[in-house]
Amino acid sequence: MNRHGVDAERFPTVVDSDPAKVGTHVPGTGQQIRFRDWLLDHPVDVVLIPPQWRARDIMEEMARHGIRCEAVLIEHGGRLIDFVRDDHPYQRPAPTPETAAPAAASQRTISPGPRKTYRSRSGTA
């Protein structure tokens, strides 16, 4: 948030669905963090989602709870872009159980190699 000048004057509200963060403040910018549902009574035009890799999950959470906005912005390529309208790698839908590889096929077992003994310069292990 600090990198893109998301200051408390232009972005006075920060929300999070993690109850442990609610009531704390954003380091560097100072906004008090409110619970996600605050947006139900105080709608906003733009939502900025700093962890772009979680944007799809957060948008789904917003939809489940009836939170609406005009645009969702994420950081990509060093600038803020519209998550829905702009091209970026986070648009891809999350894998579904039908498209995901079976867990057993995707897991590898790595067996430990032979144990090595290290000696200090004094000759003791």
Q: Care to give the gist of this entry?
A:
The chain contains three helices and five strands; from the N terminus they run E-E-H-E-H-E-E-H.
Description:
The chain has 125 residues and is α/β, with parallel strands linked by helices. 14% of the residues lie in helices and 15% in strands. It has three helices and five strands; from the N terminus they run ββαβαββα. A three-stranded mixed beta sheet has the order 3-4-5, with no helix packed on it. A two-stranded parallel ribbon has the order 1-2. Mean pLDDT is 78; it is low at 99-125.
Which helices and strands, and how do they pair?
Elements: E1 14-16, E2 33-35, H1 38-41, E3 46-48, H2 55-64, E4 71-76, E5 79-82, H3 103-106
Parallel strand pairs: 1-2, 3-4
Antiparallel strand pairs: 4-5
What is the H-and-E element order? EEHEHEEH
Strand composition percent: 15-25%
Main beta-sheet strand count, sense and barrel state: 3 strands, mixed
Regions with little confidence, pLDDT below 50 for 5+ residues = 99-125
Quaternary organisation? single chain
* CA distance, first residue to last residue: 50 Å
DSSP strand count: 5
Radius of gyration, CA atoms, in whole angstroms:
22 Å
Average of per-residue pLDDT values: 78
Overall body shape: globular
Class of secondary structure makeup: alpha/beta
Widest sheet: strand ordering: 3-4-5
Tell me the number of helical segments per DSSP (H or I, 4 or more residues long). 3
Helix content: 10-25%
